[in-house]
Task: structure prediction
Amino acid sequence: MEDPLVGKAAEILSRARRVVALTGAGISAESGVPTFRGKDGLWRQFRAEDLATPEAFARDPKLVWEWYEWRRGLIARCAPNAGHVTLAAWERVFPRFTLITQNVDGLHPSAGSTNILELHGNIWKVRCTREGTVTDNRDVPLREIPPHCPSCGALLRPHIVWFGESLDQAVIGRAFKESAACEVMVVVGTSAIVHPAASLPHYAAEAGAAVIEVNPDPTPLSPYATVSLRGPAGQLLSTLKPRETVS
Ligand code: BV8
Result:
C-alpha cells in the first residue's frame, strides 16, 4: 500500500520538466559515509570549528590533513547507493535536471551523474596554497601528510570550502539560477542549516517551485516543504521516479 505522500510527490514530479535535486550528507548515509550531525556523525568526534576552517589549517595543517586522510580512506571503501543511482537516472528522465550537492565525497559522479554543482568542493581534489592550481588526488593513503605541491613545493590543501570561506561564485551563482528556474526541488538528506546552501529551497519556493523533502527526521525546512517524506533516500527516491520519461 503506497504512502499517499509518496503518491503526491510522484504526481508532482510526473508533471515537471525542470527539476533540481539538492543533496546533503544523508544521501550517502546508506553507503556507509558518516553524516556530520547524526548520532554517529563526523562532527561528534570533532568540532567543525576545530578542523573544517582556514584557521585550523593555518594552525595545524597536519591535524587537518589527518582528519581528511581518515575520511578519504573511509569514503574510498564506500559505493554509491540506490539514492545516488536514481538521481543519476533523472538526468535522462527530465528535460532539464540539475544536481546540487553539499557533499564532498564524490559518490554522485561515481553513480553516473554529470550535471552536478559541488557547492563545497570535492575530497578527491587538492589545491596548491601558493599557485591555486587544482588537481585530482586519489592516493589512499596519501604519500605524505601534509602533502606538498610537486611543482612549487608549497602546502597542498583539500579543494573543499571550509566554514568562513566563500563558495565559488560561479558555482553558487548557477545554483541560485537553477533553483529560481525549476518547477520542483527535491531536497535529500540535509539538516538544512548550512548557508548559503540552506537558502536554495526557499529561493526555489519563492519562485513558485514545489519543494519535496526526503529525510527520516524533520528539519528547519520541513514546515516550508510541499511534501515531506520521512524515510531513507535510498529506499524512497526510486519510488518517486515518474513511470515514463517526461516528454
Ligand atoms: C559562506 C566542507 C560567505 C567541510 C562544509 C547565514 C546564516 C547562518 C550562518 C551563515 C550564513 N552564511 C554563512 C554562515 C556561516 C556558515 C554556516 O552556514 N554555518 C552554519 C553551521 C550555521 N557558512 C559558511 O561559512 C559558508 N561560507 O557562507 O561564505 C561568508 C564568508 C565569511 C564569513 C561569513 C560568510 C561555507 C559553508 C561550507 C562549509 N563546509 N563542508 C567538509 O566536508 O570537510 S559544510 C558541511 O555541512 C558539509 O559539507 C555538509 O554537506 C554540510 C551540511 O551538512 P548536511 O549535508 O546537511 O549533513 P548533516 O549531517 O548536517 O545532516 C544530514 C541529514 O541527513 C540529517 O538531516 C539526517 O536526518 C539526514 N539523513 C540521515 N540518514 C539519511 C538521511 N536522509 C536521507 N536518507 C538517509 N538514509
Notes: The longest strand covers residues 121-128. Residues 71 and 123 are 9 Å apart (CA to CA). Residues 24-27, 29-30, 35-38, 41, 52, 102-104, 120, 160-166, 188-191, 193-196, 214-217, 219, 232-233 surround BV8 (CB under 6 Å).
